[in-house]
Amino acid sequence: MSAYENDIKAVAALKETNGSPWNAINPEYAARMRAQNRFKTGLDIAKYTADIMRKDMAEYDADTSAYTQSLGCWHGFIGQQKLISIKKHLKTTNKRYLYLSGWMVAALRSDFGPLPDQSMHEKTSVSGLIEELYTFLRQADARELDLLFVALDDARNAGDNAKAADIQSQIDNYETHVVPIIADIDAGFGNAEATYLLAKQMIEAGACCIQIENQVSDEKQCGHQDGKVTVPHEEFLAKIRAVRYAFLELGVDNGVIVARTDSLGAGLTKQIAVTNEPGDLGDQYNSFLDGEYIDSAADINNGDVVVKANGKLLRPKRLASGLFEFRKGTGEDRVVLDCITSLQNGADLLWIETEKPHVGQIAAMVNRIREVVPNAKLVYNNSPSFNWTLNFRQQVFDAMQEEGKDVSAYDRAKLMSVEYDETELAQIADEKIRTFQKDAAREAGIFHHLITLPTYHTAALSTDNLAKGYFAEQGMLAYVKGVQREEIRQGIACVKHQNMAGSDIGDNHKEYFAGEAALKAGGKDNTMNQFG
User: Fold this and answer.
1) Which neighbouring-strand residues pair with 257?
2) Which pLDDT does position 521 carry in this prediction?
3) Which of 287, 291, 290 shows the shortest CA–CA distance to 273?
4) pLDDT of residue 257
5) In terms of Cα–Cα distance, which of 127, 235, 222 is closest to 453?
6) Active-site residue among 73, 208, 209, 222?
7) Is 438 or 278 the better-scoring residue by pLDDT?
8) According to its UniProt record, what is one Pfam family this protein matches (predicted)?
9) Are 130 and 207 in contact (CB under 8 A)?
10) What DSSP character marks residue 502?
């Protein structure tokens, strides 16, 4: 017996128990409302989606072609439409997640207005967006199920038992729009206690996976900007443990933690690590510091800081800001140490922020990590901060040159130019971009591919295309031809915007509550009927 049928029986039993005051209650209507509200709390969602991520991680370990993907969404509606599209075109949400980008929260969701990605926005706006995303995904379930319930009633009224049985099967086997969210907590917005408190809010809102980075909270920068400052490992590990405790306190025992390292592009540290003996974690961190070795206390100047590293006295190079520099060329070694240390201390997945999308570069670091932690795997940022076209055309140019092929027809510095679009080099590069995720999943241990802020760019592009026509000679044709006509022809459900916003659900509820006396909005005079 299906959950739907069980709910009908359960409510029917309640109705009988409560007698005549419940005479107007229809058990099937109540069962429908329960089906439309499968997840009662954010914790229900976090537990459900954590199970999905753990299953997906195990499947990836067995077969690297089973990687997962997501797009960053800055509003609940955007996330909802993404999942509706996935279900419509691909028939299943399997292996497809949502990503919550701290960059987009800062740029689009702060009461201060647009902000850079420097942890200046309100920390609660992160958990607020998680809750909003899941509100819209749950509403997508309610809307789609409502359409099925209406179709079921129509089939029953028409006496079409076969069709009614088919629709009932779709209801019983319904796949939810609710999927895992990988949520960006930045550097924790403070100390470990602050990290724990925010992590709790995020988990209570529905997050099963929290991504945290090893930058300092008060100097945090976007991963693709300069001036990044990392913290010693012990400080970062305390925040990983804080997130784990938050998961455990709330009963999400298999919650997922993504440890992000910015060390590849970060040349600075705010602190010298505490070390108790040669070779410990603090000593390894300090061994990367730039500076000069000195022989005695006489070489120490006023205000100098001196640390014993590699068995010798090191005077680290200290900037006017008080920050310390790492030696040039140590980024990859620091990344590898960060990743191994994080996995050995409670993290489940890694995030290596790189300066370009290069499978070979990523694989070289992951292979070193896997020498110590064989099942290490990554969440990777397919970032819009990369110039993908130029990067891959230059990679192909370099490979062709290395193979001794004639590249005299190309100017490597100007490969972005449209004049190269139809060339062999450009076509090879585009194919490498198309297969990048498959190749990197197979060769570089990438379990999850995401684009952090794609919908920021799509919103800007689509709005520009509409505005440039509408406010010029095209007028209404810019909207009709560029938007509405395409919505109709591509079957975009939002063309019936009243339905998408929940008008039909409300009408059906009115009928549940008031019967024939219900005043409905979806009658013959509703202009939405023009769309069939």
Assistant:
1) 210
2) 65
3) 287
4) 98
5) 222
6) 222
7) 438
8) ICL
9) yes
10) T
CATH 3.30.70.660 fits 38-275+328-452, yes or no: no
Per residue in 195-230, pLDDT tens?
A: 999 999 999 999 999 999 999 876 655 544 456 899
Rounded distance, CA 449 to CA 440, Å? 9
Residue pair 443/361 in contact by the 8 Å Cβ criterion? no
- To the question of whether residue 184 is assigned a binding role by annotation, the answer is yes
In tens, the pLDDT along 79-120 reads: 999 999 999 999 999 999 999 999 999 999 999 988 877 777
Please give the model's pTM, rounded to 2 decimal places: 0.93
Calpha distance 379→5 (Å, rounded): 40
The per-type count for the chain, helices as H runs and strands as E runs, is 20, 14
- Please report the beta strands in 330-403, taking only residues with DSSP state E, as ranges in sequence order: 349-352, 378-381
**Phi-psi region at 240: left, alpha or beta (left = phi > 0; alpha = psi -120 to 50):** alpha
| Beta-sheet strand order (sheet of 229-230) | 229-230, 268-269, 324-325
222 is catalytic: yes
The alpha-helical segments, DSSP class H, found in 173-232 are 192-205
Helix or strand run (H / E) with residue 314: strand 312-316
Paired strand residues for 259: 212, 350
Structure tokens that stand for 105 in this block: 């929260």
Q: How far apart are CA 423 and CA 419, in angstroms?
A: 8
Q: According to the model, what pLDDT value does residue 371 have? A: 98
Q: Which single residue is written with the structure tokens 């038992």?
A: 161
Average pLDDT over residues 7-28: 96
Contact (CB, 8 A) for 71 and 98? yes
- DSSP, res 265: T
- Give the pLDDT of residue 529: 66
Amino acid in the structure at residue 525: D
C-alpha 485/C-alpha 479 separation (Å) is 8
CB 143 within 8 A of CB 503: no
For residue 224, the model assigns a pLDDT of 47
